[in-house]
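---------- Forwarded message ----------

FYI, see the TRAP transporter small permease protein record below. Original note from H. follows.
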Amino acid sequence: MARSADHASTIEGREAIAGAAARIGSAAEWLLGVLLIVVVAINVVNASGRYLFSYSVVGADELMVYTIILVVMAGAVLALARRDHINVNLVPSYARGRWRHALHVINDLAALAATVYAANASWLYVERIARLDTRSMALGLPMTIPHSAVLAGFVGMALVAAVLLARDTHAFAVNAQASGAAS
């Protein structure tokens, strides 16, 4: 009986974590949507000023590009967490049980390897431009800021891939135990 209660509390804990993660993801998507609307507003103001009043807002284009970089990288983390990223899922969509978990593990390993590699390359680049004190032309922002958004995105994706790998490896192992117990 105690084992059953422990199992139920573990499931409830996992469901609570999954629910919290879903709410955080939804809030992040909402915020990213607002940022995209802000980019459109900046573009409208800048284009209106340029064509109607022969005045352009200094740094507007840079600000829009940097905001889009942030939105794309944050969106990529969310897409990976929800498995909404671009992938070939023809085989996993037909696979069941252990095979499906095995395919997810392979996908997670590939995502982890790619994002760790990209995060490392991004880190090296951010270090280099920090040493050179490179700044944007219009706003004079340190270029480490937009490039750190790229770095943070790859690190975030690597962390998500590691969590997915742990979860899918566990699911594969549990499914293997259930298959062994059934036979």
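H. also flagged this: The chain has one domain: 2-182.
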